[in-house]
Design a protein that fits this description.
By secondary structure, the chain is of the alpha/beta class. The chain contains 13 helices and twelve strands. Helix 11 links the parallel strand 8 and strand 9.
Length: 360
Amino acid sequence: MTARLADIAAQAGVSEATVSRVLNGKPGVAAATRESVLAALDVLGYERPVRLRRRSAGLVGLITPELDNPIFPALAQVIGQALTRQGYTPVLATQTPGGSTEDELTEMLVDRGVAGIIFVSGLHADTTADMQRYDQLRAQGVPYVLVDGFSPKVQAPFISPDDRAAMQLAVTHLVSLGHTEIGLALGPKRFVPVQRKIEGFVRTMQDRLGLTPEDIEERFVQHSLYTLEGGQAAASALMDRQCTAIVCASDMMALGAIRAARQRGLEVPDDISVVGFDDSPLIAFTDPPLTTIRKPVPAMGQAAVRTLLEEIGGTPAPHSEFVFMPELVVRGSTASGPRAKTPPKVGENAARNRPGDDRA
């Protein structure tokens, strides 16, 4: 106990006696000092005494798709931390294949008296889904915010990345490397983020390479599933059409594209370049490190929480969409296209293949 008091005192910059007074709920300690000691407890991983725990301002539901894709746990962590800092308790509800539906999870959260709900990549992103479910939730007096996807039929605030701009960044990067046969691997067309990515891809390919929209969609767009296997299947189809670079709508799909290339004996990026989307945790450490479009997860998560808490506080957000700009992160999975490469000079191959040279 003495060692623990010493650690907390050092972290908070106060005496052990002060720490003892705070932990025992004794008076005579300034509010700022008391908060410093409690913060030190949190930082060091000690559990607060029951009488000192912050009372929850309420529960907030967070409904996400499956957690196999690491971008969803990353977003959930940002949202959960932001809610906790504001005194709310996050309740994570995850959809799994064959498990509870979004409607069932919503009903469960409402029954438990949540103050509000944040939906991530839910049915609001599906253009074929019935949007009346959200009107019914609003009629029950439950505030909510919708992340990743937009519907003009739902009177609520939306938080989205700029999917069109993301594709512009990816295609422009690949064209600058000399690629002209660029494929796009993405999910089912009924989803709003997919439609927006196609719009951005087609527009940029048209502007940069002078192709017609019809030709671009027919030759260079391939729909599949947002999984590693889906990316592998889509990439195989695009490689059959002689694509030398592939833009994927998720990092998981991009890993599948790399697998497909290697099954054909191709090297990434020497023979084919691959770009992902999300910049999921650990994706910088793949082989090769993945060039990707970084989704602004921290900014989006914090905005979702801030917007929801304003609604909970009685200040309804307008029916609008807050759009966040993504960022191109260039790593080792993209390189010059075949037409941009020049034959090596005499002796250059031997020099390039010396042990210890970095091929990335």
